[in-house]
Amino acid sequence: MDKKKISSNPHRFRPLKNNSTFRFPHVVIEDKKEVWVYIASGFPSTLAVSPLMKVHYPGYKSCLCNKETFIRIGGKI
C-alpha cells in the first residue's frame, strides 16, 4: 500500500507544546512587568520576540538589550 505524503516539512503539522520555553536568554522583572531579552544575532531574530511575548508573558513589556546590560541585570548566557 502506498502511503500518501502530506508535507515535505516535518514541522508543519507539529502541534504547539504548552510547556515550551522562551527561545532566547531573558530576565523577568516581576515588579515592573518587564522581560529583558538578549539576542546576539540581531535582525531578523528580533522579530520573533513580539509573538513569543504574547504567548509566554502576556501583559509584560519586552526590552531588548546588549550583552553588558544583560549580564549587569543578572542574566546568564
Topology:
Layout: E1 26-29, E2 34-38, H1 49-56, E3 61-65, H2 67-72
Parallel strand pairs: 2-3
Antiparallel strand pairs: 1-2
Textual characterization of the structure:
The chain is an alpha+beta fold. The protein has a domain at 26-72. Helices cover 18% and strands 18% of the residues. It contains two helices and three strands. Strands 1-2-3 form a three-stranded mixed beta sheet. Strand 1 and strand 2 (34-38) form a beta hairpin. The longest helix has 8 residues, at 49-56. Mean pLDDT is 81; it is low at 14-19.
Q: Which ranges are low-confidence, i.e. pLDDT below 50, for 5 or more consecutive residues?
A: 14-19
What structural category do the secondary elements indicate? alpha+beta
* SSE string: EEHEH
Strand content: 15-25%
Q: What share of residues is helical?
A: 10-25%
**Distance between the ends:** 50 Å
| pLDDT averaged residue by residue | 81
> What is the total tally of β strands?
3
Characterize the overall form: globular
The main sheet comes to:
3 strands, mixed
Strand order within the widest beta sheet: 1-2-3
Rg of Cα set? 17 Å
Helical run tally: 2
